[in-house]
TrEMBL record:
This protein's UniProt keywords: Membrane, Transmembrane, Transmembrane helix
Protein name: Uncharacterized protein
Source organism of the structure: Bradyrhizobium betae
Record has Transmembrane as a keyword: yes
Taxonomic lineage from the root: Bacteria, Pseudomonadati, Pseudomonadota, Alphaproteobacteria, Hyphomicrobiales
TM segment ranges: 32-50
Highest taxon of source: Bacteria
Length: 78
């Protein structure tokens, strides 16, 4: 049993050492760039749109997405 826990303890020790190296030495809060925030918001919105498009048939079958404001077929182009 002790032989099996030795590699696990080594990995835990290594992760703790890496965590100490990754922590910033100064505790001052850092601000994110406004451009970075904008990019995150745009990418999240794009992902949401793509997910809705991908699962539109499933959403319609559940009644979550429908043709509430459908256009009369007469006005659609051929």
């Amino acid at each position: 049993m002790q032989g099996q826990s030795r590699p696990l303890l080594r990995v835990i020790s290594w992760l703790r050492a890496v965590r100490v190296l990754l922590i910033a030495p100064d505790p001052a809060p850092r601000e994110a760039s406004p451009l970075l925030i904008l990019m995150v918001v745009v990418l999240a919105l794009l992902l949401a749109i793509l997910e809705v498009e991908l699962h539109s048939a499933d959403l319609q079958s559940l009644g979550l997405m429908g043709d509430a404001f459908s256009i009369d077929p007469v006005f659609k182009s051929p």
